[in-house]
Structure formats: C-alpha cells, structure tokens
Write a structure and sequence with these properties.
Elements (H helix, E strand, L loop, with lengths): L1 H6 L6 H9 L9 E5 L4 H15 L4 E8 L6 H14 L3 E6 L9 H20 L3 E3 L4 H13 L4 H4 L5 E3 L4 E3 L7 H10 L16 H10 L4 H33 E3 L5 E4 H6 L2 H16 L7 H12 L9 E3 L2 E5 L4 E6 L7 E3 L4 E4 L3 E5 L10 E5 L1 H7 L9 H4 L3 E5 L2 E5 L4 E2 L2 H6 E6 L14
Parallel strand pairs: 1-2, 1-4, 2-3, 4-6
Antiparallel strand pairs: 5-6, 7-8, 8-11, 9-10, 10-11, 12-15, 13-14, 14-19, 15-16, 16-17, 17-18
Helix pairs in contact: 3-8, 6-9, 6-10, 10-12
Amino acid sequence: MAGDAASRAEPLRDSDFEELMAGLGPFEPAPWLAVGLSGGSDSLALAALAGRWAAARGGRVTALIVDHGLRRGSRGEARGVAAQAAGLGLEPVVLTWRGAKPEANLQAEARRARHALLRDWCRRHGLLHLLLGQQRDDQAETLLLNLARGSGLDGLAAMAPLVETPDLRILRPLLGVPRARLRAGLRAAGLDWLEDPSNRDPRFGRSRLRGALAGLTDEPLLERRLADAAGHLGRARVALEAAVAELLARAARLADDGSLRLRAGALAAAPEEVSLRALAGLLATVGGADYPPRFERLLRLHAALTGPDLAGFKGATLGGCRLRPGREGAILVVREAAKVPRLALEPGARGLWDGRFRYRLGRPAGLRGRALSLGPLGTAGGRALALPGPRPPAPVRAPLPAFGDADGLLAVPQLGYYRDPAARKLVQDCHFAPRRPLIGGEFTVA
C-alpha cells in the first residue's frame, strides 16, 4: 500500500516551494544560496527547486558536494553529481573529507564532517543561507531514533526548519514534504538519483528503523503523525527557549573576554526547567562546548546555586567552566584554563580557537617563517604583563587567548597587549564568538 501511495504522489510544484521558502525568509535581493547535494533524491530535488527559485529572483545556487572517501569510486561519483548539478544550471563545488576515518560511529562522524565542510565553505565565501534536504520521512525517523536513545524534549523535537548560527542560516525547507512527492517531481523532470548503499546497511540504526517502517501498511500515515508530533514538540521547545532567553537577559552578563557574571537569585526564582536550561546554555557558551554537560552533574550544580544556602557555595567546575562566588550574590563563570588547548599556527592562519575566540592572522615581514602558538595566557603569564590601568581578576585572565613565538609572548588582544608593531600587524582579529551563542535562534519552527 505504501508503494501504491508513492506512485500516486503529486510532484512538489515551484509554487509550493515558494511558499515553503517564504516562511524561512527574509532573503537578500538576488540571493546566493548553497545547497548540500549528495546526489540522492531528497537533495537533488531540493537543488533543482532551489535553483529555479533563486534564478527567478536574479540569484544563484552553489551545489556543495562532499566526497567522504569511504568507498571505492566515491571521487568519480562526486564528479558525476557535480556534472548533474551543472546541467541544472547550478555552480558545483566538490569538498573532500581528508584524513583518517574513524572506525566507530562512522555514520555520525561522517555526518559531522560533512556539515563542518559545508558550513566552513559558506563561512569562507560569505554565504548567508545553507539549504539541506531532510524531508518528512527523515523527521519521523529522527524522532523515533531519539526516542529510543532516551532523548528529552530537545531531541524529540527532532530537526528545525531554520537554525540561525553566528555565521549563517541553515534552512530545511522540505521537512514537511514526504519523499514520495520529491521523487515524483524528479521522475516528471526525467532526473535520476543515486541510492546510498549505507541506507540499506543493517549495521546502522537508521537503516534498520527505515526497514521496519517500510513493512508497515500505514507507513505514510505513521510518518505524517510522527512528523506532526515532532512539530508539536518543536513549538514547545521554542516556547521554552524564549523563556530561557528572557531569563538569561536578566540574570547573565557576558563580557567580551568570555567571562560571565550570573545573578543566582534570578536563576532560583525561575521555573526549574527554565533555569536548568539557562545554566546548561551559559556553561556551553563560556566553555566553548558543542553540548551541555551531563544532566546529573548539571542538576547538582543547579541545586547548589538555587538552594537556600548560596552563601555556603565555595565554587565548582563543570562543562570546562570554573564557577566562583562573587559580590552581592553574583557568580563568576570563566573557562577552566587547565582545559584550554594550545595550537601551533603559521602566519595567515584563521579559525575558531577553543570553541570561543575567532582569530585571523596576517603575514607581517618581521614574523614570516616563524613558528607561532596560540594558547591560554595562564596565571603566571597574566601576572608578568605590565599593563596600564586596572586588570581583570586572575580567573578571567588565565584562559584568555595568548599568541606567542620562540621569543615568548607576542600578543594578548583582550588585554590590549602587543609586544611590538609586528605583533600588532600579526593579530588582525581575535574576538569572542562562541560556538554556541548565549542567546540565539538555535531552534526555530516555521
């Protein structure tokens, strides 16, 4: 019956896609979009639809194709997808996942690498919008997989149609569209797609779940209801995130040096779920983390900060952060300096250090060819600096980004320190831009 329903599916029209995109705007005049294109039916349908949508507005689409290098022939396959994209009037770019491949959690790591490549390309080329091809069937599968893993509300809300990051907007316009409609549109246009063999590999949980769903006679109805449930949960998550943002705006003060001062009283006065989320979020921001700390430890810290004996709080560490009591009931939250990495750099390098500070180096004549480093200033380094005026407390100074070479400390931009004019020309930019913003549109329901 599911196969019969798929064969009767109505293709997604350009006017339908226009309505979907309208809910994800605004867009600049003559928009330049990037589309992640694997060559599968979902991403190919999205690329074709987005190409026509952008062209109608005087814009263009770059199709980003990732060669994971996980099986023989992947390079030729990527080139074939690029040729197909060019035939659709798109600008194809092939990105390659280089380096050793993990033996465990291969699908998850490949997905992480793919997204990193896509986002990095968009960031380097100044694109504001990255479109991904997940559709309604994917949404249903994600809900079930997260349910099986014991996820909370955030996981059960599954994927968001719109995610705003500090660098770009990630759009999934097809989340409410069944795959059958996308494939019907491809067939009508005479377009063939690739089938990823890993989608049928029983070693992977999503493949086993897909096989189980395919055996149900009411598969389309079940997928629609699961996707609808994810939407309901997504709206609940949006409401919670709005309450968290309002609490953080009142209770937290985030400085340019990456430190944060928290009014514990405001945290204690808020509903527990809201204050727990606020605490987890601020730890991830200050700690430069991808994910919040483990819930059990978060719960213990939350109890210490919101309980009746805050005066007895002597300090704690969690999520790569150090918390210490301050004046008038405020809590100082800083990055734990001992956990901060040290990098070897070359002139001209750029990137995100420790998930917190984005840096860009120049190539001054006095430092060309030198081996450079970027690491935490440390307590001793902070004491040794002769700086005019007041200096931040030692816990704030210790995790600050410090650039150095074989002769010692070159620059600590957050403290206004540069050893010489060449050092000032070297560090062209270094600012606090955490991987996870304190308050941001991380999850949006269209």
